Q: What sequence folds into this?
């Protein structure tokens, strides 16, 4: 499990959940889940990315919990979910299925938002029975389905074998990240965020990423290096919106447009000028607004709305 190093004040400090529970995945892996907001409100499920945790979604959780039931979980080995020897796209799909079954009633629909590896989780689960039962709509943030290392622009060189080799070894480095220092913040900002990201955003991201155990970070980097979920994209039949930062070096906009061309029901690509890979933190308003839009259009409960209005 990760050390808990998230910020403790400000808009990116994780709010206390209404309840916490543990789901058990198909191979026995245990997954930490947090549930926020009214129990009968429309449901939103949040899947974070590589080296992150539920703390990554703090801004979305804060804004949505007044009138949504927000379900956030730690991917295996991240946050409060113990590490597992099984690291694969299938394991990610198993885990999302386990979370959906543990938190949603039979037939209940939810908007599912995935950032980076969380978006890849959604693609991997697109054909799974629990996903098809519960997914009303999807938001894919800063993600891709294949060619992740080849398309990355973290290394400022022309595309080619040298850039690919260097990128693979940088992203797959076994070295510990160490404490959060000014140099560490500068490196993380360059690789994962837009040049205009405010210091408090960088600090929030750095604390979350540096909390991820070295072995977990390395194990999942090997999965992402070889990832090919193009088939899952073609099977993702629910309405799907895409958000990407134009300065994203890890999953550049080419991925977003490739996804849009392959999705059966794409609602369009929203490009956020000058922003990097960490869009839910760099642009909390637009990302939260897109989630609200999907909920309103595809899942909002008439009964819940009437109860709120009559309260």
A:
């Amino acid at each position: 499990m990760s050390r808990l190093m998230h910020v403790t004040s400000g808009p990116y400090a994780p709010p206390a959940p209404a309840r916490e529970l543990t789901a058990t995945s198909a191979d026995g892996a245990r997954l930490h889940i947090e549930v926020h907001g009214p129990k009968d409100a429309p449901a939103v499920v949040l899947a974070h990315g590589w080296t992150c945790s539920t703390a990554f979604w703090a801004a979305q959780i804060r804004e949505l919990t007044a009138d949504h039931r927000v379900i956030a979980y730690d991917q295996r080995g991240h946050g409060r979910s113990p590490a597992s020897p099984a690291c694969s796209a299938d394991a990610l799909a198993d885990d999302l299925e386990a979370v959906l079954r543990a938190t949603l009633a039979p037939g209940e629909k939810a908007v599912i938002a995935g950032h980076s590896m969380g978006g890849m989780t959604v693609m991997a689960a697109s054909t799974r029975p629990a996903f098809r039962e519960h997914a009303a709509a999807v938001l894919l943030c800063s993600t891709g389905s294949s060619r992740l290392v080849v398309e990355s622009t973290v290394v400022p060189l022309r595309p080619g074998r040298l850039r690919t080799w260097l990128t693979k070894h940088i992203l797959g480095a076994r070295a510990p990240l160490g404490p959060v220092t000014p140099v560490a913040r500068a490196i993380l900002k360059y690789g994962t965020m837009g040049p205009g990201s405010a210091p408090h955003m960088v600090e929030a991201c750095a604390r979350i990423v540096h909390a991820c155990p070295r072995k977990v970070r390395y194990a999942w980097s090997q999965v992402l290096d070889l990832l090919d979920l193009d088939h899952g994209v073609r099977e993702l039949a629910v309405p799907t919106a895409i958000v990407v930062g134009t300065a994203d070096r890890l999953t550049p906009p080419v991925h977003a447009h490739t996804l849009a061309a392959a999705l059966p029901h794409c609602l369009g690509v929203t490009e956020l000028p000058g922003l990097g890979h960490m869009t839910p933190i760099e642009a909390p308003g637009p990302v939260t607004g897109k989630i609200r839009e999907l909920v309103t259009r595809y899942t909002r409960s008439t009964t819940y709305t009437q109860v709120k209005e009559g309260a």
Strands lie at 19-24, 30-36, 43-47, 69-73, 110-115, 135-141, 240-245, 266-272.
